[in-house]
Design a protein that fits this description.
Blueprint: E1 5-19, E2 24-25, E3 29-30, E4 34-52, E5 60-65, E6 68-69, H1 74-84, E7 94-102, H2 113-131, H3 140-157, E8 169-172, E9 186-188, E10 201-205, H4 216-221, H5 229-249, H6 252-271, H7 282-297, E11 303-306, E12 312-316, H8 321-332, E13 341-345, E14 351-352
Parallel strand pairs: 5-7
Antiparallel strand pairs: 1-4, 1-14, 2-3, 4-7, 4-8, 5-6, 8-9, 10-12, 10-13, 11-12
Helix pairs in contact: 2-3, 5-6
This protein binds (3R)-3-hydroxy-3-methyl-5-(phosphonooxy)pentanoic acid (PMV).
Organism: Seonamhaeicola marinus
Domain Diphosphomevalonate decarboxylase-like N-terminal: 13-177
Domain Mvd1 C-terminal: 204-332
Length: 353
């Protein structure tokens, strides 16, 4: 079909890993399987406008963040286009205008790469659909093709982005117990999850909004020749197996054990890389200690996880919301930069607008 121009808008959320992806092989293939909660409020909205161009020798695109031209995003998107062009050759045939905005403040230390890259990948898949002669039908098989390929493309933009398209739990990386799991794209968790995990809350404490000193790309790279890499990759498989049982049986105490251990293991891998580095800040540790004390004093199921930075994600059941928010205000806000935190919860994936 000849299409001269058009535009499409997708909104896609961020996600928070429970079993962490840390270490990769060639072509963004994860060294171990991971699983994440999809978030609800933290998301990126991207409009992709496309117009046919004559010259196909170069990629041609412009990027706007919240209405302002953002040339600093261009190298990452250029790399992304290079990686995906064999799968979506039309990227050379159009000039693209990428307009993007995040619901969370930029430079909040919340990575926008998962929500941003998944939104862009979904927009590109909508263009592919528009260009396909017979179009796609609404049947399950073509929807599956669309989502899997969008997740596949998102992975090539930023690994964890492939887990942002669906919800409320998404697994990425081949795991023997997860039906349909793949290293190439994320899949919606295929089993029933106990009601104890419905509407789980995630409050993100912004401990440090600055640019982190070591990028996740460099961090992943340091898992090559890492003395504990093999044991770590094996442990991720085991922890995912444990979580499958936990999600089935609803054991929140065991959930806490796995999730906190995963967070600390991620940072332990950083501390034992060569060169070694630390992304936690003193306030990260203050918060962790406060959470442990709070659990000892109450029978709360509040726990924490971390991504590759200093911020702390507080995970807890919905029925504890009032008490936990009170605890945050009284004891944890003091450790947040400018007292800033974001209340979010589990969500159900990307939406076409
Ligand atoms: O998607 P990347 O390459 O930015 O790596 C993300 C890694 C962690 O956030 C630390 C863990 C994860 O599984 O999301």
């Amino acid at each position: 079909k000849t299409v001269e121009r058009g535009n499409v808008t997708w909104e896609s959320p961020s996600n928070i890993a429970l079993v962490k992806y840390w270490g990769k092989k060639e072509n963004q293939i994860p060294a171990n399987p991971s699983i994440s909660f999809t978030l609800s409020g933290c998301k990126t909205k991207t409009t992709l406008s496309y117009s046919k161009k004559e010259n196909t020798s170069d990629f041609s695109f412009e990027v706007f963040l919240e209405g302002e031209q953002k040339d600093s995003f261009k190298p990452k998107i250029e790399t992304f286009f290079k990686r995906i062009e064999v799968y979506v050759p039309f990227v050379r045939d159009f000039h693209f205008k990428i307009e993007t905005e995040n619901t969370f403040p930029h430079s909040s230390g919340i990575a926008s790469s998962a929500s941003g890259m998944s939104a862009l990948a979904l927009c590109l898949m909508s263009v592919e659909m528009e260009l396909t002669n017979d179009g796609y039908s609404e049947n399950e098989e073509s929807q599956k093709y669309f989502t899997n390929k969008a997740s596949f493309l998102a992975r090539l933009g930023s690994g964890s982005a492939c887990r942002s398209l669906e919800g409320d739990l998404v697994a990425w990386g081949t795991h023997k117990e997860i039906t349909g799991s793949s290293d190439l794209f994320g899949v919606k968790y295929p089993f029933k999850v106990h009601d104890n995990f419905k509407n789980y809350q995630d409050t993100i404490l912004l401990v440090d909004k600055g640019e982190k000193q070591v990028s996740s790309t460099v961090g992943h790279g340091l898992m090559h020749n890492h003395p504990f890499a093999e044991q770590r990759f094996e442990q991720a498989h085991e922890n995912l197996s444990s979580l499958i049982k936990i999600f089935k049986e609803g054991d929140v105490s065991k959930f806490i054990e796995i999730v906190e251990s995963e967070a600390l293991t991620l940072h332990a891998m950083m501390m034992t890389s060569m060169p070694y580095f630390i992304l936690m800040k003193p306030n990260t540790l203050e918060i962790i200690n406060k959470i442990w004390a709070y659990r000892t004093e109450t029978n709360s199921k509040l726990c924490f996880t971390l991504d590759a930075g200093a911020n702390v994600h507080l995970l807890y059941p919905e029925n504890e919301k009032i008490q936990v928010l009170e605890f945050i205000k009284n004891e944890l806000v003091a450790y947040c930069q400018n007292g800033h935190y974001i209340c979010d919860q589990i969500g159900f994936g990307a939406k076409k607008l």
